[in-house]
Amino acid sequence: MILNYNGRKLLGRFLPLIARTDYQPLELVVVDNASTDDSCGWLRARWPQVTLLRQDRNLAYAGGNNVGIRYAMAKGHRYVVIANNDIEPHPSWIREAVTHATKHPQHGCIGFNVFNQEVTRLAFEQACRQLGQTDWRPVAHISGCSLLCDAEVFRSIGLFDETYQFYAEENDLELRAMRAGWQMVELPVPVWHMGEASTCKMGLWRAYLSMRNLIRMSLKLDGLWRGLRTVATVFNRACNLSLHLDFDADYTLRRYRPSSLPVNAGLALAALGWNLLALPHTLYVGWRDRRRVAQYVAKQVG
Q1: Radius of gyration (Cα) for the chain, nearest Å?
Q2: Together in a domain, 230 and 178
Q3: Other CB atoms within 10 A of residue 255 CB
């Protein structure tokens, strides 16, 4: 399932690479978030074998992926693979993941060895050449650019939380999955990810959403005290110039310092203000999700 928004050029580059996947049976689905760049016309003309789910408005990452997940579940698919439109996976990625999931049904979320940005291209190509036995390792987070989930995960804990729009939505989902007893693992199968190809032009809005959603996730899933600690973390990253952020090790940290100190501080204040206004709804949704997880765990124990 590939989410697309005005990604005609990205689809032209990466869809043929994704289509090299050597696993069958496989349904390739593109969820289009109301693109205006002829992505849909190009897909219908060049890729008629692809299932196209065109939306009449932009549902963002969470909403668009939820459309695809609901479609997959209605069709009875056992596994759902969430993929960005700017990835190049090793052809064996899904085959290896499904083989692993069949042997380890408790591993409900499976990720891959993701290489981000152009500087790692050679490392990605070398990893593809050297891919051998696919040992796995447990992880606490899987990148939303390439994620295989057992459909039962969504039945047990629900879908993506659409309030986030962008950023933190997969973290929220994965944390709920782990609390419900599902395990997350990463396979060494390489996937190359261009990295923020669809959101790199969002600028200050992207930074604001990153700050806002990190605070919301903490408030929602961990309560007020942990939420306050996350607020302090956000302001420290955005405003403390003596704090070194290793952008090379984690490029997502750039989102906290998109501009000058006054601008960054203003974005952090706006993120905090939004969360204060949304606090009653956030706490209610958190209670609802925790109850659903608890009910699923109780059912499994019983």
Answers
A1: 19
A2: no
A3: 22
Determine how many CB atoms are found less than 10 A away from the CB of residue 197.
18
| Mean pLDDT across 161-187 | 94
CATH code of the domain in which 122 resides: 3.90.550.10
3 state SS of 165: coil
Amino acid at 181: G
Q: For residue 1, count CB atoms less than 10 angstroms from its CB and return exposed for 0-12, middle for 13-18, buried for 19 or more.
A: buried
The string of pLDDT tens digits covering residues 47-58 is 999 999 999 999
Alpha helices in the chain (DSSP H): 8-18, 39-46, 60-75, 93-103, 121-130, 151-157, 169-179, 204-239, 261-301
186 in the same domain as 288: no
Q: Decide: 40 and 139 in contact? Cβ < 8 Å.
A: no
Show the tokens assigned to 11.
Answer: 């689809």
- Tally the domains of the chain: 2
Q: How many residues make up the chain in this entry?
A: 302
Q: Which residues pair with 88 in a beta bridge?
A: 192
**∠126-128-133 over CA atoms, to 5°?**
115
Query: pTM of this prediction?
Result: 0.90
For 268, counting Cβ atoms within 10 Å of its Cβ (0-12 exposed, 13-18 middle, 19+ buried), the class is buried
